[in-house]
């Protein structure tokens, strides 16, 4: 047994079983309520945590998440000095949490949060008293997760989602919590369908921190601008008969909403409309990320061949999971090809398509690498049409909370004049004609939030 002192008690790790086929590591957190009283005062965001009688010693809350982060620090970081190759391997895991608080969602919310991450979820509500079934269920859930996952990913899933399900933290949430969330959520949170709900709850609904976190989580093909919209809090939802707030599938209250269509949806719709206009039947998505556009292309049966390419193997894994590749019908699977590749190195697999799409991709390249991308796409692959979207830097002043560029990985953001200058030069150099379209509301002074160029082979000076 190993023992680790915490500010609120003691964490113990022991191994009930350890054999050739199976090993169980158990983390037992012994919370001292008196130490909680001494370490937390009325300034605590949840003053009830500082009382002698509460559920903290008995439930998997943010206290357990904090202890886990300390006890399993190197495992959570994906490091093993003795066997450095092991942390990168997905292994069959089973995680059991006998008493997990699930406020405002219960069993359904546990499924919603863990299943998109590849877990098989077993969740059962814990009754208030088994001897009195008429009393109904408590807000606690008995949760078991099974899946083949990297240990580091599994621990980070728990580190983030335990306090999210509990919807409370035992300490004051400051700006450094954004950094903790970004680190723990690397590789999975940005693509999670409930990332808005997760981010708001993890950060105790502090609007400024939530916006900052969502901005940093924005990925290629995702929508930072929508993340900067004021969040709708769960507490405004209509109450259900049991007194809990009702939540829709997106983590927001059910009912009508006046919020505008997110820009990432408008962008995807604009690309699909452009592909339809040029009559493309075979399409390659260069820089497909988590597969949002690929999924939309699969829904269009007139498109007979689809490829998704990304330099990140992890992004392709997320795409395969989101597309349910393992359960896809044979006919649908025959139309799709997902593969890893770099857009700055020639690749024969890029060729042979009616159209290629670079949706929010070029701004992620260092400017000196752009000529290489141009040679690979326009000079090597030579599709009949190339559709490029990129942010309009002039529009950034419309985002009050935005400082700098829209994403920390952007190497540049073009004005409308800069984008047209680049597109015209590429078109002339490789024998294309180019047309421009706005994406999103076209501000008369600043232009649209996203700008699009549609290249068509057959024009310019070769």
Automatic annotation (TrEMBL):
Its cofactor is Mg(2+). Pfam families: Hen1_L, Methyltransf_12. Its EC number is 2.1.1.386. GO terms for biological process: regulatory ncRNA-mediated gene silencing; RNA methylation. Residues 1-218 form the Hen1 N-terminal domain. It comes from the Bacteria. Residues 225-237 have a biased composition (Acidic residues). Residues 284-376 form the Methyltransferase type domain. One of its GO terms (molecular function) is RNA binding. InterPro entries: 3'-RNA_MeTfrase_Hen1_bac, Hen1, Hen1_N, Hen1_N_sf, Methyltransf_12, SAM-dependent_MTases_sf. Keywords: Magnesium, Metal-binding, Methyltransferase, RNA-binding, RNA-mediated gene silencing, S-adenosyl-L-methionine, Transferase. Coiled coil: none annotated. It catalyses: small RNA 3'-end nucleotide + S-adenosyl-L-methionine = small RNA 3'-end 2'-O-methylnucleotide + S-adenosyl-L-homocysteine + H(+). Residues 225-262 are annotated as: Disordered. Belongs to the methyltransferase superfamily. HEN1 family. This is Small RNA 2'-O-methyltransferase. It comes from Acrocarpospora macrocephala.
């Amino acid at each position: 047994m190993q023992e680790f002192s915490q500010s609120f008690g003691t964490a113990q790790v022991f191994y009930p079983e350890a054999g050739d086929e199976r090993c169980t590591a158990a983390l037992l957190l012994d919370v001292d309520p008196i130490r909680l009283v001494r370490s937390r005062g009325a300034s605590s965001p949840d003053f009830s945590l500082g009382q002698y009688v509460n559920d903290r010693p008995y439930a998997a809350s943010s206290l357990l998440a904090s202890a886990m982060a300390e006890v399993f620090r190197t495992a959570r970081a994906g490091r093993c000095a003795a066997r450095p190759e092991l942390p990168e391997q997905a292994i069959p895991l089973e995680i059991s949490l006998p008493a997990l608080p699930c406020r405002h969602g219960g069993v359904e919310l546990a499924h919603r949060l863990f299943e998109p991450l590849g877990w098989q979820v077993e969740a059962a509500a814990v009754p208030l008293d088994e001897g009195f079934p008429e009393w109904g269920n408590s807000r606690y859930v008995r949760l078991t997760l099974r899946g083949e996952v990297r240990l580091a990913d599994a621990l980070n899933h728990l580190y983030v989602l335990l306090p999210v399900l509990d919807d409370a933290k035992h300490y004051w949430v400051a700006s450094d919590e954004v950094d903790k969330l970004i680190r723990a959520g690397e590789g999975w949170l940005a693509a999670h369908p409930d990332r808005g709900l997760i981010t708001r709850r993890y950060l105790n609904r502090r609007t400024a921190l939530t916006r900052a976190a969502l901005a940093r989580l924005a990925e290629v093909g995702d929508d930072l601008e929508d993340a900067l919209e004021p969040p709708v809090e769960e507490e405004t939802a209509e109450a259900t008969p049991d007194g809990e707030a009702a939540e829709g599938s997106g983590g927001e209250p059910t009912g009508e909403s006046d919020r505008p269509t997110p820009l990432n949806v408008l962008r995807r719709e604009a690309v699909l409309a452009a592909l339809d206009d040029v009559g493309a039947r075979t399409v390659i998505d260069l820089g497909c990320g988590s597969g949002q556009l690929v999924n939309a292309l699969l829904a269009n049966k007139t498109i007979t061949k689809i490829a998704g390419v990304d330099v990140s193997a992890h992004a392709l894994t997320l795409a395969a999971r989101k597309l349910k590749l393992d359960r896809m019908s044979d006919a649908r699977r025959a139309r799709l090809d997902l593969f890893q590749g770099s857009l700055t190195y020639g690749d024969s697999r890029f060729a042979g398509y009616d159209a290629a799409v670079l949706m929010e991709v070029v701004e992620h390249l260092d400017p000196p690498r752009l000529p290489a991308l141009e040679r690979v796409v326009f000079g090597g692959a030579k599709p009949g049409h190339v559709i490029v979207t990129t942010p309009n830097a002039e529009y950034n002043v419309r985002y009050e909370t935005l400082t700098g560029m829209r994403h920390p990985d952007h190497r540049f953001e073009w004005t409308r004049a800069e984008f047209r200058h680049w597109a015209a030069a590429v078109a002339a150099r490789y024998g294309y004609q180019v047309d421009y379209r706005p994406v999103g509301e076209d501000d008369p002074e600043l232009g649209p939030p996203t700008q699009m160029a549609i290249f068509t082979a057959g024009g310019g000076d070769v």
